[in-house]
Amino acid sequence: MKNFQGKTLSWRAGDGVIELVLDRAPCNEIGSETLVELEKFTAALESLKKDARALVISSERKEGFSAGADLRELYERSRDLPPAEKNAGVRDFLLRIHRVMNALDAAPLVTIAAVHGVAFGGGFELALACDLIVADKMARFCFPELRLGLIPGFGGIPRLKRDVGNAVVRDLLLTGRSINAEKARAAGLVSQVTAEGDAARVARSTAEQAAKFDRTAAIAAKRFIKPIPEEDLRREIDIFCELFAQPAVEAGLRKFAESTDPLPYLP
Amino acid sequence: MNMPEETLNEILRLAAAHFHVSREQLHADDDFFAKLGINSLQALELLTRIEQHFHIELPDYELQGVSDFRTLASRIQSRL
User: Fold this and answer.
1) Which among B40, B48, B59 is the nearest to A265, CB-wise?
2) How far is C-alpha A57 from the geometric centre of its chain's CA atoms?
3) Mean pLDDT computed over A187-212
4) Which chain B residues in 33-72 lie under 8 Å from chain A, judged by CB atoms?
5) What is the value of pTM for the model shown?
6) Interface with chain A: mutation pick from B32, B40, B44, B62, highest number of A CBs within 10 Å
7) Taking 60 as the threshold, does the pLDDT of residue A217 lie above it?
8) Where are the domains of chain A?
9) Over 90: is that where the pLDDT of A256 sits?
10) pLDDT value of residue A255
């Protein structure tokens, strides 16, 4: 499928570059519908990669790249289930999203996240699965999961640990604070900071540059410098599921889900 | 180093420009959520503008419970 238009995202391929565009209101929260379409995309990558050298992931939503996991859906789907069933459902979701993230992480293409606005939680984790992050100067990055009594569950900690120093990981994780694009660039997470509204254009230009290089060499370089942290990723799922069973998490999710603010991202 | 009053004026100017309202409409003790009709995400945008303008880092947890420009200015002042 060279082009696809779904309910939460779309993609099109041409001139050696695949563009995957997230577009689900309010801010690309990643729930079951997005997961299914991301799975479609990673399945389609098998044929798309034949004619492409690079992938750009961006967002059509003015609010930002992605606000993370769809916590309202998570709460609604799990609140009335017995503990064992609740945990099995979450583990299944995490295993599926990890397969998607790992496929993007290891894709035989140069992958670039074009980030504007918020890249929080799962949205930040999606960006971290990419090879490069190009950020609009108004972008903000955050791991707010500890506010709910959880840790990031889409592979965020192992991938952040792979890219930056442990002190930066602790700062972001243990305070839950958001950082701007310039701070993220200084920490080594963001490769380029652009003017407002320019991240997608700069990401495309970067993709076109990357697409000029020999594919075999580019894939070999990527495999050499960007190994998938398999063991840490497995451990992350276990820790997330252990924490998810705690009563405080349900209370935190309830508070979030029942908030009247459509975008309750600030602490 | 900016004086507190100067910091406050700069914040009011930044907020007016970012949210496209007249500077004269904004006052130091206004509740900026109510006065500007903004949500938490738009407050984050203002935070980013402030960090860029003053060349500071202002962790969002320092803004918990802060909703007026004067208190916001004092938080910024402590980072200058």
Assistant:
1) B40
2) 10
3) 96
4) 39-41, 43-45, 48, 51-52, 57, 59-61, 63-64
5) 0.94
6) B44
7) yes
8) 3-257
9) no
10) 84
For residues A178 and A230, give the distance between their C-alpha atoms in angstroms, rounded to a whole number: 27
CA distance A133 to A135: 6
What's the complex ipTM?
0.89
B30-66 residue pLDDT tens: 998 888 988 888 888 999 999 999 999 999 888 888 8
- Say if residues A26 and B39 touch (Cβ distance below 8 Å): no
Instruction: Report the top-level CATH class of A3-257.
Output: alpha beta
